[in-house]
Structure formats: structure tokens, C-alpha cells
Amino acid sequence: MPNHPLTPEDRVINPASIAMLRKAEADGVDTCFHRFDALGTQCRFGVTGVCCKNCHMGPCRITPKSPRGICGADADTIVARNFLREVTGGCAAHSDHGRHLVLRLKAVAEGKGGDYRITDRKALLRIAGKYGIETAGREDNAIALELANTFLADFTAQEETLKTLTLAPRKQQAIWEKVGVAPMGIDRMCVEAMHRTHMGVDHDYRNLLLHAFRTALADGWGGARIASMAADILFGTPKPLRSEANLGVLEEKQVNIIVHGHEPALSEMLAVAARDPEVIAYAKAAGAEGVNLAGLCCTANEILMRRGVRVAGNFHQQELAIVTGVVEMMVVDVQCIMPSLPTVAASYHTEIVSTADAAKTIGATHIAFRASDGLASAKAIVKRAVDNFAKRDPGKVLVPAVKQPLVAGFSVEAIKYMLGGTYRASFRPLNDAIIQGRIRGVAGIVGCNNPKTQADSYINTVTRELIKRNVLVLQTGCAAQASAKAGALTPETALAEAGKGLREVCEAVGIPPILHMGSCVDNARILEAATEIVLEGGLGDDIGGLPAVGIAPEWMSEKAVTIGCYFVASGCDVILGLPFHISGSENVTRFLQEEATELFGGAFHDIPDPLAAADKTLELIEAARERLGINAKAERKLFDMKDRRQLDV
Ligand code: NFS
Ligand code: SF4
Predict the structure, then answer these.
(1) pLDDT bracket for residue 3 (50, 70, 90)
(2) Please, what are the domains in the chain?
(3) pTM of the model
(4) What is the atom index within ligand 2 of the atom nearest the CA of 60?
């Protein structure tokens, strides 16, 4: 951070965000950046993870002078308990989102789905097949019902391990069995985590951290994976499509509605409602040229991936979008929604509408979304936004003319199809390119923005550096949106910047070097892609052996902690641009940064500098290539006993 008062240019790199931050200051509107300043130095106990308030003898804070809480808990116990609770928060968030979609799928299968239906029959059959559900000669609804019940059993299983784990490579499953982290029911894992972290229960930091990995696996190979699959069946498996991103997608002459949050059920209906002729006529009668729907955060990713709906911005732009003065309504559901939104909106005419009964904010209008008549509910919401158009204050309008074209929609099915063609869809060309060394490896770049660092900057720097060095980049969440805004999600731009080997492969098979794979629950798609690569052959027999690295440059949410943990438990090294709150315990830090490698084949690495992160990524990728014996110039590697032991579980 510079040693002068922070300017908008210091806080954000994107010109649209810079302009809106400047306007917010002129309009007297506080944003997360200003509140970050107002908070001053952040609490050292919180930052290092040594504050415990799990019982009312406390709060207790560990210092060199008082190394134990009142109950006797030491820093290791307290830091590990706090960490496990974060992972549980993340698993619960993704999984509850998944649960809602599964219940929706079940309702559809039972003929009670209202305006929802099975949009992607192929996805239904493909996914049912993965779970060994009989499909031949059966009605779609019967298959969907059995599948929905199978999904639900993964939430409620008491003693059985998750069925969804069986979608992982067999060796991966064996590793989880051996380490003892194969999760049982998702709900049980979360309940058990809260039990273990209650005062006076689990005090062994290793035991707590193993449960953190178990709970994280219940997310990545459970709730989140199920969320992606159920959404594909209900709304369609994404295919590549073009769209645009950044605040410049807001239209001065139209009614602007922004959907923000995570669950696709409502936004899908809003997308339909916004194009309804009756609604458009209603908007025209109100003096607008039409209705412009745009998205923020992961709701944006969901409807971008399937419908090409344009992206207004990522996490740090949710307040800034309102500052444009042209947003008639922001419709929010769950997760990553700043409670400040109604306060920001009060300076403009924007109405904040909350729609999930589990997620209300004082100052927002709550319109409970009725799934039973989803389209009618959605139309009513859009018409309400139209009614607000007349209240727009032209004196407060400023839409930055900044937007970039993009290509998104890379589900695993789509990638497979692009790589291999209709009749022989396969990952073979990618595996071959990695084996030949034209592509060195794969990096998953994921996660949020965080006012602790200049928004989007680390994401964009590390992404560009990695494609330059012939690493194929897979992205999700707000990180993918950062790339979109930087113009890096157009095949043309990215190809121009990619290294020679990566460029040749991408041109030959027709994929861009940076693939937008969806929202944060779609990180499960990255695991799915890794599984496909393993199953395709020639690159070892588990995900941990692949030349693949996860990077969370600007993360902030508990969900990101959980995602990091399930990547590590799946054998991937994960680079964090911002550290966890664990430095108060050397043992917890050592476990997560070193011992995890012995257990799973991957660990966490704190790297605050994006170029150093790119160096580390290449180092990890090259080491994996050496272990696989695929480095062209390297002599054929003879495995010694130690290597062999690492290969065999
Ligand atoms: Ni992911 Fe998506 Fe964005 Fe971070 Fe929030 S929107 S679920 S948590 S902030 S990437
Ligand atoms: Fe303090 Fe122990 Fe209670 Fe935590 S559980 S607040 S360390 S007494």
C-alpha cells in the first residue's frame, strides 16, 4: 500500500470502477473501500486467529503472556477451531444452494415444478448414468426423481460416505479413505463441525483440521458438485457464447435491473420475464426503450453461462453499480450481498429487493419469491422496476462507457466437445498437449475481490503471466469476471498474449487459453475437468499427480476457504494471495502449508505478489511433470522406491 491517502486508482485498476469510486466520493456515498479505511488497523487477534468466543467464560485472546484461554485451550486449538468453523460456513453456503436446486428438481419430477422443467434431458441421462441409475425405457420424471432422491441422500446420509465421491478417480477415493477424510452426509459434516468446535469437545488441532478437510470435501465433491449438476439439468449445460462485461453494460435509456447473489432459480425466471413482450410494452409505456437485465457476482455467472446475460461487474462493484444512478432495481438472493446496499441506494432511486426468506436486509424491500408461479413472480418484480424508472434523477446519472466482449460457457461437456468433436468428444488432445509440453499444465484461478488489495489487479497479472508461460487457465467466480473486464476472455486477445505452445494448441482445437467455467459452485467443474484428464490417461492416476495448481488471488469469503481446502484435499497445491487467519499457531500453519502435502499431495502457499505466484505455479507444475516423467528433455525417469511409494496409496 502507498504511503499517501489512497486514491481510487490505488484501490481499483478498472477504469469503470475508478470513475464510479470518484463519483461515489463526490456524491458523499461510502463504499467498502471507505469503510475499510474507517476501520483502521485490523485486530491483531482476529488476523492471527487467536481470539476465541466459543463460550461465555471468554472471549479469550492468546498472547505470549497468557498462552491459554480460561478453559485451557491453547493457540493451536483456538486457531484450528476457528478455521474449521470458516470451512463449515463455506460448505453450508454452497450446499444449501445445492439443496434448493435439488428440491426444485424433485418438485419438477413430481409434476409440482410450476414454471420450471427439465431443460437438458441429455444432462439428466448423463448424470443419472454416473450414479448407476437405470435410464433405459424410463420416463424422464422417474429418472429425475430417483436422481433427486440420490442427491438428497448425500445431504442426509448418517453413516454412508457420499455417493458423489465416487465421481472422483478411484485412487483419489482411496487416498481419502486412507487419510480418513471421506465425508458422510453433508448436513452431518456441518453439524459435527459445530459440535466439535463447541467448548470442551475437540482440542487436537490435527483432528480438527482433518475434519475441516472432510467438511470441505463434502462441499466440493458433494454440495457444490450437486448444485452444478442440478442446475445443468434444470437450466441447461453451458455452451460457449459471447457476451459483455463491466458497468458499461448498463443502459441509460432502458430500465436496468441487476440480479446479484448466487442461486440461478430466480434469475433464470427474471431473464425470461425481462424479454416478455408484455413486460417490454409496459417499459415502453413508462418512457424506457426496454428492459436491460445484467448480473453481479455468481448470479451473473450462472445466467451468463447459460443465456449470455451481460455482467455488470464482480464483488467490489456491487455498490459502484448503484452509483451509476441508472439502476432501477437490484434483486438479491443469497451470499456476497453487502448489507450496505440499501444505504448506498438511498442516495439514488434504486430499490433493493431481497427475495430469499433466509436473507433479508433492513432497508431492502422483501418480495418472497414463489417458485410455484416463478414466471408470474418474476414479471411482477420486473414491472415494479419499470415503475421506478420515472424516479431516476438525470442529474445523478453517469454510466462509464467501459465494457469488454467476452466468451464464456465452458462446461466440461463443452470443453470435451471442442477438444474432440461431436463423435469423439474427449480430453485426448489436451492430455497429449500437456504430455508433449506444449501446454505445461493447468491453473484454476478463482475467488473474490478484497479491499485489502487493489481490486482485480493480482487476478489479471497472474492470469496473463501464466498464459504467457503456456499454462491453460480455468476460471470461475469473480476472478473470471475480472478477466472478462480486462478483455482477456476474448479468444483473440488471449491468443495474442499466450505462449507459443499454448497458442498453437488453442488455435488447433478452437478453445481460448482462459476458460470461464462458471460460478463458484462450478469450481466443482474444475475438479470434474481434472478427473476427465486423469481418466483420459497418460498423466498418472490421481488429480494430485497432475501438473495443476489452484490460485485464489483476492479471496475474502468463507466459501473460498472451503474451496481451497477441497482443492488441497484433492491433491492440488493452492496459492493464496491473502493469508488465512492462522498465523497465531505455528502447528496449524505447518499442517496446512507442509503436512497436507504428505497426506493429500498438495498444500497451501501464501504468495502476496502475483509474479511470484506465477513463478511458484510453474515450479509446482514442472515438479509434477518431472514426477510424471513427461518432461521432454528430461531423461526417462527411473522411479526409486520413495517415488513409487508416493504413487501407490
Ligand atoms: Ni465466490 Fe460467488 Fe465472488 Fe467470492 Fe462471492 S460472488 S461464490 S465468494 S465474492 S468469488
Ligand atoms: Fe475462552 Fe475456552 Fe471459552 Fe474459548 S472455549 S472462550 S478459550 S474459555
Answers:
(1) low
(2) 11-61 (no CATH), 75-235 (1.20.1270.30), 247-396 (3.40.50.2030), 407-628 (3.40.50.2030)
(3) 0.95
(4) 1
